Structure formats: C-alpha cells, structure tokens
Amino acid sequence: xxxxxxxxxxxxxxxxxxxxxxxxxxxxxxxxxxxxxxxxxxxxxxxxxxxxxxxxxxxxxxxxxxxxxxxxxxxxxxxxxxxxxxxxxxxxxxxxxxxxxxxxxxxxxxxxxxxxxxxxxxxxxxxxxxxxxxxxxxxxxxxxxxxxxxxxxxxxxxxxxxxxxxxxxxxxxxxxxxxxxxxxxxxxxxxxxxxxxxxxxxxxxxxxxxxxxxxxxxxxxxxxxxxxxxxxxxxxxxxxxxxxxxxxxxxxxxxxxxxxxxxxxxxxxxxxxxxxxxxxxxxxxxxxxxxxxxxxxxxxxxxxxxxxxxxxxxxxxxxxxxxxxxxxxxxxxxxxxxxxxxxxxxxxxxxxxxxxxxxxxxxxxxxxxxxxxxxxxxxxxxxxxxxxxxxxxxxxxxxxxxxxxxxx
Length: 408
Ligand SMILES: Cc1cc2nc3c(=O)[nH]c(=O)nc-3n(C[C@H](O)[C@H](O)[C@H](O)COP(=O)(O)OP(=O)(O)OC[C@H]3O[C@@H](n4cnc5c(N)ncnc54)[C@H](O)[C@@H]3O)c2cc1C
Description:
Blueprint: E1 3-7, H1 11-22, E2 26-30, H2 38-42, E3 51-52, E4 60-61, H3 68-74, H4 77-86, E5 91-93, E6 98-101, H5 106-119, E7 123-125, E8 132-136, E9 139-143, E10 148-152, E11 154-157, H6 172-179, E12 184-190, E13 194-196, H7 200-203, E14 208-217, E15 220-231, E16 235-237, H8 239-253, E17 258-263, H9 270-283, H10 289-293, H11 299-308, H12 322-333, E18 335-342, E19 350-355, E20 373-375, E21 383-384, H13 389-407
Parallel strand pairs: 1-2, 1-11, 2-7, 11-20
Antiparallel strand pairs: 3-6, 4-21, 5-6, 8-9, 9-10, 12-19, 13-16, 13-18, 14-15, 14-17, 15-16, 17-18
Bound molecules: flavin-adenine dinucleotide.
C-alpha cells in the first residue's frame, strides 16, 4: 500500500491529494486551520481568480522561473478546466484570460474540492499543525505537539508561505525543508501595498485614481503599468501598485533606492495638459486655481498638487502664469514619492523566495536530496504576477506531485 501524507490543505495540497487518491494511493491531509483552503476562500476578493488562459514562465519570478515550464506544459489551462468540470466546477473566462468560478464565489471552489476529496476517501485532519517530520528508515513520521503519525511512504510539504498569517501563512515549510538540507531563497512580500516616505498620502487617504505608475530603482525606470491607485494612511495601494510591488520588494530587500512616479492623467502629455489648464483659466478668470483643477482631479489631491507645485491655492486664474501651469502639469504627470517599505507579509497576497527549485525535480516536485519527500505550491522559490498565476502554479505543481507520489 502506498501511504501518502500531505502537510497543508491549500490549493497545492488539495490538488496533490485528489490526483494521488484518484490513482489509487491512500492519502491523509494535515491542516493546521479549522478547515482547508482558507487562502482560496480569500482569493480574488472572495471571487477567486482561479487561473488564466495565458500562462508562461514570463508570468513568474524566482531564481529559476524556467522551473515552471514543465508543470505548465503538463497542466495548462485546458487541463485545469477539465479537472474543474470533473469535480463539478465551471469556469467563467474573461476577455483578458483571467478565469473565475462561474458562481463568482471562491466558496464554491473549496466546497467542490472538499466534496471530491471526501468522495475519494481522503482523510483530512484539521486543526493539526505538524511541528516535525522525521525520516525513519524507508518511511516518514509526522509529529504534532501531542501526537505522532507513522509509516508514510511519501510526504508532500505544501504549507504555503508567510504571506497573510491571519489565513495560516507561516514559514513552517521552510523550516522543514532546511532540516532536510534544502536551501531557502530569502522570502519577501509580493502583491502588496507600499509604504511611502511622505505624509502627503495620509492626507489623501481614500482617494482613488486611474494612473500610470513608473517604478524607479536607483533612479532608473524599471517598470511601467496602468491601473487604479489608492492613497492610504501608510502610503499607497491599488492594482497598479500591487503589479509593481514584486520588483519594488526585491529592490527594497537589496537596499536600493526605490521611487514611484505617478502620472495621474495617463492620456495627457505635458503640452496638452498645460494647454487645457491655460484654456480653463481663460474661461473663468475669477475662479481660484484650486476650483479649476477640481474639474480634473479629486479636490483632496488638488490641494497637495498645488502645495507641491508651490502655487497658492487661492490664486485667481487670471494670475496663473505659464511657469505655474508648467509646475502644476509636471506634478500631475510625474509626481514622485520615495518608497520606504512594503506594507509587510500580513497584507501581502503572496511571498517571493522560498525553497530553491534547483534542488527539486521539475517533473515530479520530488526533492533531489531526500527520496520520497515532495514540495509544491507557493512554498517554492516561484511567485507569479497578479491574474490567477499563483493559484495556477499551486494547482500545476500539486498535480505533478500527486501524480508522481502515486506512481512511485
Ligand atoms: C488575500 C489573498 C488573495 C489572493 N488572491 C489570489 C487570486 O485571486 N488568484 C491567485 O492566483 N492567487 C491569489 N492569492 C494567492 C494564492 O491564494 C496562493 O498563492 C495559493 O493559495 C498558494 O497555495 P498553496 O497551497 O501553496 O498554499 P496555501 O494555500 O497557503 O496552503 C498552505 C496550507 O498549509 C497550512 N499549514 C501551514 N503550516 C502547516 C503545518 N505546520 N501543519 C499543517 N498545516 C500547515 C496552512 O494553514 C494552509 O492552509 C491570494 C492570496 C491572498 C492572501
């Protein structure tokens, strides 16, 4: 009998368990939370951006992003879609490739996985935190603080990352991996809001704006994206910020100078914006400049744009000269802020870094150091962009591990 233990009942662990049990293995899942799949439930703001039709190594970061090639080729979007349908889950794919459960509820994903695991006779131990794994002869033993579970032929560590500790995120998997001699690439928060070295955002808390964001590392523009930004009491959030947070977080870890440049009206260049402000000033010469700009941007932002541009708020439009207009346009189209930190693991969707992929077999997810030991999911030194990529890697790596463990 092939007896398999899976530590961590998240996306990777559940997929591995189902795949292995379907192939005839006896599978037990150990999950520290009161139920499996807590991160799945929280994903995509409760809607679960479960996968994406466009998947390639370019959507992933790590020391060796090419590690994902095999898993994506073996378990692509269509394969995953078929799997979903086999467990009673239909997908809704948007024009940009992002896919969600048809119900638009993350809950239906977890319910379908739980029901299918139950059907296959998989044993799930919840509220069971594994604190130690021992290799005893040909077998593995798992220990909680109270109890030991013995005689497993294979063990999968799929304990996720330190991101979102309130949902069960921790570094247990890294500790387990290290005790078996694995190398860990330093972990860092990703898909995370940024803290800014300025009090201005605090005063604009709650203001949202569709913008173009440029990430500057040591003065060099490294990345440019468009999307919503949201000023907060600690700095800045919003989809555009999450999208650049990966590179920003790595640069901060390396003590580089990190800045963001905000183009608050992405469709305008300096010349046309200056011309428009100038025309508005001519149209209503008695209005204060702050009232005129409030027709372009939120009034909370206008106050600070004028302060930074050194133009008094109450300046009548007729007195606003070309130099002032140039300064205002410059601020609106390239407002720079220094990034002091990320908003931390607690607020991050995922973590970069983790178990080095150089020491794993990309085809089976088995450790090259310890036979019978497998790793899958976010615990590895692979992190994806926003858009369903992180869950997809958890599904794909879990699938390969499950298949290999059942076969071995
Ligand atoms: C708020 C939020 C929104 C997100 N939205 C999306 C999205 O829309 N699309 C997307 O692709 N990705 C999203 N992600 C990321 C995605 O959820 C993760 O990348 C994915 O769930 C990782 O799966 P995993 O199985 O590797 O780890 P996890 O899902 O974290 O599972 C690991 C499990 O192991 C358990 N565990 C840890 N240590 C132990 C131990 N010692 N003993 C027993 N159990 C243990 C944990 O409790 C956890 O249940 C989001 C993440 C967050 C936090």
